[in-house]
Specification:
By secondary structure, the chain is mostly helical. The chain has 18 helices and no strands.
């Protein structure tokens, strides 16, 4: 309980600093707030599957948080002013080059999704097992095709920048921009992944604050922040519930079956029935950190990949040019909880380089 209170207070401090601090609305403060509150929530250990963290894991988290804070503060202080003063992308946004980039991204994304569809004869949300299907895709064609299929994660924020900064009076460019955003979210929704959809939403939120900070008041900022938080919470609860209900509904034929039956059974969470809807919100921080903890306990100097895991992302591209590509098979079941979770973005760095990877991250 002491650790929960400590990290909750630290998280709230960064949240307040994000809105009212000397340097307002810088993303790293909000990210630190999320990390600290995630660590705080994880201290409840509501499932017997969650093992107590070791001293080594606490040290890893502290090293990361301290380095992230120091690096972000230095970067924000040195570069943010120069970027904001010299940021004049009108020449790019108003020209044909911008739409050419968007068009190429859209074509490649649609092409990658057609390739994946032909490979599996379905896509996650179109299948009867969306919860398993998305991991089958990740396992079978991880890398270039998967990243290409999810390219709208970058195309949507890029298009949003255009809508905020474009000075054109023509209707068709903005119409194309809105169509591109709609197409992007349609494509991302096919994968039934909350993170895939939340990422561009958060990017658009930070872009909005960065580009409109001088033109909007605190009330509008708080309203925009509240709206984003609400949308993120709804997506975080609804998407896994719907996805898992479709996949596992045949396993629950009694009256107790609901959208959270499978996730409650699998996670073994000790939560009152009236609060079952909280399960996805708890699992996001607590079980991903638990999985990362198990990864740090599993990987050591004797079995680090030393860059091969990060390089494996480009394996399909390397194979096209007949270059040697790393064949990485991670023993997920040996180290993780009994279902797939990402173990935070730090997993990639730890699996490759250990502490040096955390410093690099």
């Amino acid at each position: 309980m002491i650790l929960f209170i400590l990290f909750s207070v630290l998280g709230v401090i960064f949240a307040i600093s994000y809105f009212l601090g000397k340097q307002k609305f810088v993303p790293y403060k909000l990210l630190l707030c999320v990390w600290l509150l995630s660590i705080a929530v994880s201290q409840f250990r509501l499932s017997p599957l969650e093992k107590p963290w070791t001293t080594n894991f606490w040290l890893i988290l502290i090293v990361f948080l301290v380095l992230f804070y120091v690096a972000s503060k230095i970067f924000s202080k040195i570069f943010s002013r120069k970027i904001s003063e010299n940021f004049s992308p009108a020449w790019f946004l108003e020209g044909r080059l911008f739409f050419a980039v968007l068009l190429l991204m859209a074509i490649f994304s649609v092409g990658a999704n057609i390739y994946i569809y032909n490979y599996f004869q379905t896509l996650p949300i179109l299948s009867s097992i969306p919860d398993r299907m998305r991991f089958a895709i990740n396992k079978e064609i991880f890398g270039l095709w998967e990243y290409g299929a999810l390219l709208p994660r970058l195309a949507i924020p890029l298009t949003f920048i255009y809508l905020l900064l474009s000075r054109t009076n023509k209707k068709w460019p903005k119409a194309l921009a809105y169509m591109n955003i709609i197409l992007g979210f349609v494509i991302l929704s096919l994968y039934a992944s909350r993170l895939t959809i939340i990422f561009p939403i958060l990017m658009c939120y930070f872009i909005y604050l960065l580009l409109r900070l001088k033109d909007i008041n605190l009330k509008k900022i708080i309203s925009a922040s509240a709206a984003v938080v609400l949308v993120v919470l709804v997506i975080s609860i609804a998407i896994p519930a719907v996805r898992q209900h479709i996949t596992y509904r045949d396993y629950y034929l009694n009256k107790e079956n609901d959208a959270f039956s499978y996730i409650m059974t699998l996670s073994e969470l000790k939560i009152p029935d009236n609060f079952r809807w909280v399960a996805p919100l708890y699992i996001i921080p607590a079980f991903n950190l638990q999985a990362f903890f198990r990864a740090t306990d599993f990987f050591g100097p004797s079995n680090f990949y030393y860059g091969q895991y990060g390089l494996s992302t480009f394996s399909p591209l390397l194979k096209i040019f007949h270059l040697p590509a790393p064949e990485i098979k991670i023993p997920w079941k040996q180290m993780f909880l009994p279902w797939w979770i990402t173990a935070t973005f730090l997993f990639n760095y730890w699996a490759d380089f250990g502490y040096w990877g955390i410093i690099l991250a």
